[in-house]
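Supplementary notes (optional reading)

For those who missed the lab, this is the record we used. Protein: Macrophage mannose receptor 1. Length: 362 residues.
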Amino acid sequence: MTPLLFMLCSGVFHFTLANRLRIFRLCEECNWEDALNRCNERNESIITLYDEKDVNFTESFIKNMSTQNVWTGLHIGRNNVSAWSDGAPLTFNMSHANVANGEQICEAIVNNTWEGFNCSDRKPFMCQKDNSYFLIKNEAKNWCQAHQHCRRYYGDLVSIRNETQNQQVIKKGNGATFWIGLMHDEWKWMDNSCSTYRRWEIRDKDEKCTMLSTIAMLPSMQTQACDNVQQPLFSKGSVRIIVIQKKLNWEQAFDYCKAEHTRLLQIEDAEDQKAIEQWLKYSNPNVNEKIWIGLRQSRVFGFWIWSDKTVSYSHWRNNTMPKMPLSNHCGVINRNSYRWSDENCLLQLSFICEEDIIYMKN
Ligand SMILES: *[C@@H]1O[C@H](CO)[C@@H](O)[C@H](O)[C@H]1NC(C)=O
Ligand SMILES: *[C@@H]1O[C@H](CO)[C@@H](O)[C@H](O)[C@H]1NC(C)=O
Ligand SMILES: *[C@@H]1O[C@H](CO)[C@@H](O)[C@H](O)[C@H]1NC(C)=O
Ligand SMILES: *[C@@H]1O[C@H](CO)[C@@H](O)[C@H](O)[C@H]1NC(C)=O
Ligand SMILES: *[C@@H]1O[C@H](CO)[C@@H](O)[C@H](O)[C@H]1NC(C)=O
Ligand SMILES: *[C@@H]1O[C@H](CO)[C@@H](O)[C@H](O)[C@H]1NC(C)=O
Ligand SMILES: *[C@@H]1O[C@H](CO)[C@@H](O)[C@H](O)[C@H]1NC(C)=O
Ligand SMILES: *[C@@H]1O[C@H](CO)[C@@H](O)[C@H](O)[C@H]1NC(C)=O
Ligand SMILES: *[C@@H]1O[C@H](CO)[C@@H](O)[C@H](O)[C@H]1NC(C)=O
């Protein structure tokens, strides 16, 4: 083992047990099974990729450690290829989807019939709580984001168990096209999270594990024999960091994150701060120096708050909390120093959202 890798694995980056924001760690090479065991020791997971931003981050993170291929958490082994988002197997079956070639397929109702689509397509969707149905038609989301939205505000995406219910759902849909809770997939991510990201370059039917390869111009996913050795990339934490390039004032950024993701970024402890530093450093977003975070000052009392809690941990510039009456009332993180400072809430700046990861039930 080289000294660098030894350091990486022996915890120079100290991980406490409960991380909120996702943070990454590259480990020395091993087969997929061993990677799995190492994860369990430290409550980590082999990484899940959610989108191209994740892939770009991963590429620059591992290239910095002079590595080009890493194990990813995707592997064959979903219990039932076809299952509802609440974990139930497909019993009442109106699906025509061709699942034989191993693609991830999600079902929508189109013109009153079930039809399979690429799960990363954005569509309206129908949520269910007990025996009530809610058609969300003003927000088009990919299947996993729709799943997340339903879990957060209702119960789950709608799942259909018999013809009576099918007719009720169709009636409620009133001719619209919308996602329902059925996903076909023979692959699952190690941490069981919901992700619609796939960009296969090589997919060999006999191999059950996967890696991300960054050797070619565009990074891509490739199947691998599970007993090959490879460096695993581990992650920890259940909240993703999402940098939005678009420029908005603080209030608009706050609303945007709430609608599109979960909330404007909160940095609640030193682990969160480390995670955001790591993400900004390697994801290298195309944004200016100052980036909105969910930090705001009470104009009446002068203390600083996150959207739903007071600020306890802090990382202010010069270690100095901006005080009234000279302060501006909204908070940014500075891209290079990673320090926080105050800004006029009406400035149009890029911003950082956070998104709760949604886990599958099967
Ligand atoms: C990822 O990186 C590629 C190549 O550098 C770039 O073209 C692409 O825009 C990046 N994607 C995102 C979402 O940042
Ligand atoms: C990795 O990042 C460090 C710190 O930014 C930098 O000094 C080093 O040159 C980078 N290494 C490679 C191989 O890119
Ligand atoms: C898989 O689906 C079958 C019916 O299609 C069901 O009997 C079985 O319980 C399901 N397995 C799991 C683990 O959900
Ligand atoms: C559902 O029906 C389709 C089409 O008849 C069939 O190909 C598929 O295997 C069925 N799925 C299950 C889980 O029974
Ligand atoms: C919907 O279905 C009806 C009857 O099957 C058909 O006449 C109509 O063209 C379909 N509409 C679309 C948009 O596919
Ligand atoms: C699904 O759509 C995404 C983005 O449009 C694309 O990259 C991917 O290849 C598609 N997947 C399949 C199976 O067609
Ligand atoms: C259809 O399924 C729903 C939901 O599981 C259930 O409440 C209802 O009793 C079922 N209806 C029939 C006719 O089986
Ligand atoms: C392990 O990580 C999960 C997901 O990030 C978290 O919910 C759980 O509390 C962690 N367990 C411990 C013992 O820290
Ligand atoms: C913070 O420190 C910088 C450089 O160290 C200095 O130029 C600046 O005046 C300080 N700001 C405040 C508010 O103390």
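If you only remember one thing from this example: The first helix runs from residue 3 to 9.
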